[in-house]
Specification:
Metal Binding Protein, Guanine Nucleotide Exchange Factor, Chain A; 10 strands; globular; binds zinc ion
Length: 133
């Protein structure tokens, strides 16, 4: 019996980072939230809205997202199919997170809204959003 079977999927860097709980906020501080993730990857997107926001995002399940403050401060923008919900602060205009269209139980988080976030070493995946408009 061999216990030396190579496991090909272990070769990826996914899951090698520690689970972190980070807080984030918009610029004026009205919107504050917390996420928990091990940052398996960051994503950019070239859809019409992400391109303009120049957003670098991390995806988290809604169970790992907590809005601490600012529900009243958030304004929502929908376009195209109207499924994705793009939130921004009505005071400072910053985009802190959005509800995903393809996976509506997930949030896309603007990583530059996170306190003390260091993107070093985390792979960045460029997702193709042009087809999503
Ligand atoms: Zn704000």
């Amino acid at each position: 019996m061999s216990d030396q079977q190579p496991v090909a999927s272990r070769a990826t860097t996914a899951g090698t980072r520690p689970l972190q709980r980070l807080s984030g906020s918009c610029h004026c501080g009205a919107v504050r939230f917390e996420i928990e993730t091990d940052f398996p990857e960051l994503t950019t997107c070239d859809c019409s809205i992400c391109r303009r926001k120049n957003a670098l995002m991390v995806k988290v399940h809604e169970d790992h997202f907590k809005l601490i403050a600012g529900e009243d401060a958030l304004t929502e923008y929908r376009f195209h199919t109207g499924t994705a919900r793009h939130f921004f602060c009505r005071t400072c205009g910053i985009y802190p997170f959005h509800r995903k269209r393809v996976m509506p139980d997930h949030f896309g988080i603007n990583v530059f809204c996170l306190d003390d976030f260091d993107p070093a070493g985390i792979p960045v995946r460029h997702t193709d959003g042009v087809g999503m408009k």
